[in-house]
Every structure is written in C-alpha cells, then in structure tokens.
Write a structure and sequence with these properties.
Blueprint lengths: L2 E2 L5 E3 L10 E10 L1 E4 L2 E4 L4 E9 L2 E6 L11 E3 L15 E6 L9 E8 L8 E10 L4 E7 L8 E10 L2 E11 L4 H8 L4
InterPro entries: Stress/Tellurium_Resist, TerD
Pfam families: TerD
Organism: Streptomyces carminius
C-alpha cells in the first residue's frame, strides 16, 4: 500500500510483516508542461536530474548523479540520465537504487534532490513526483508529488535517514535554485 506523503511527513521503512527493508529505489518522474506558441500547443524538452547526497552528520561524504553513477562504497547506484523525461503515467524517468544493508555505518542520511540542468523552472514541469519502492518486490511504499510549479529550478525532494536500527523516509519538498547538486548544498543543510 502506497503512502502519499505531504511536505515534512515521515514514514518508517519497515515491511508490513515487521521485517526491515534491505533495498529501495527512489524513482523520479516528470513531464514537460505544454506551452502555447505561435503554432499552437507545443512541449519543450526538460532535463531534470536526480541526485543522492550521502551525509555523515552535516558533512557530505559522497554523491551519486548522472556523472558519478555509483557511490564509492557501491551501496547507491543511479540508473542513468534521462534528458527529456516524459515517461509519464507513473513510470520513473530516473531512478537511484539504495542497498540499505551496504550503506556504511557512518552515513546517517541520504538526501535526494532534483534539479533542472538546462535551467527551466518548475513552472514548465508537470506531473513530477518522487517515489520510494521496495526493490526486492517492486511494491511502491511512498510517493511525494510536486504540486503547482514555480519559478525555481530545483527541489530538495526527500531523505532517507537512520532511525534506531532501521531507516525512515521524510518528504522535504523544499524549493531551491541551481542547475547541479553542488548548487543545492546550502539549501540541503537546513534539512539534515
């Protein structure tokens, strides 16, 4: 059963049978919003990029994004860059896989971001979401839908963080500006 998250809401990453999740996929999907032009409605391609920043406390230790597809320890893996999005209908345009059992003990949180590499704002994006999937069985656990575009080029989407012996996901949904994850670092820090 999927939990539709609202901004700031957290859920425990426990399986319904009481077991602990071992591998999750953070999927990102979006479509370009149609625009009126001289020749009627048209759609512009938009390149959104998903990134995952691995933190130990307040300090970033590693990052996974389209130019560094696998974390140094191998626990986090990006499936590849999608330059136009638009799979739509709930499918993932980009995905980041996290093997929670392999994440080093000093990493206490992983922050997921999305940014417009080509600089378009979220006013030009529609049907954007991130979702957390149990990678062992394909079950969607949680979904966070971006609502109402805006004149920003990035979002701090969500984070998974250690909670006792397990993990928890928190929907952040904070607007930011930047074309790369490096640009977003100051915006991430308040959410750690």
């Amino acid at each position: 059963m999927t939990v539709n998250l609202s901004k700031g809401q957290a859920i425990s990453l426990q399986k319904s049978d009481g077991g602990t999740l071992t591998a999750v996929r953070m999927g990102l999907g979006w479509q370009a919003a149609p625009r009126r032009g001289l020749f009627g409605r048209r759609t512009q391609e938009i390149d959104l990029d998903a990134s995952a920043v691995l933190f130990a406390g307040q300090e970033p230790k590693d990052v996974v994004f389209f130019r560094h597809l696998v974390s140094d320890d191998g626990s986090v893996r990006h499936t590849g860059d999608n330059l136009v999005g638009g799979v739509g209908q709930g499918g993932d345009d980009e995905a980041i896989l996290v093997d929670l059992q392999r994440v080093p003990v000093h990493i206490d949180q992983i922050v997921f971001t999305v940014n417009s590499f080509t600089g378009q704002t979220f006013a030009e994006v529609q049907n954007a979401f991130c979702r957390l999937v149990d990678e062992t069985n394909g079950q969607e656990l949680a979904r966070y839908t971006l609502t109402g575009g805006g004149q920003y080029t990035a979002q701090i989407m969500a984070k998974v963080h250690r909670q006792g012996a397990g993990w928890q996901m928190t929907a952040i949904g904070a607007e930011a500006n930047g074309r790369t994850f490096q640009d977003l670092m100051p915006s991430m820090l308040p959410h750690l």
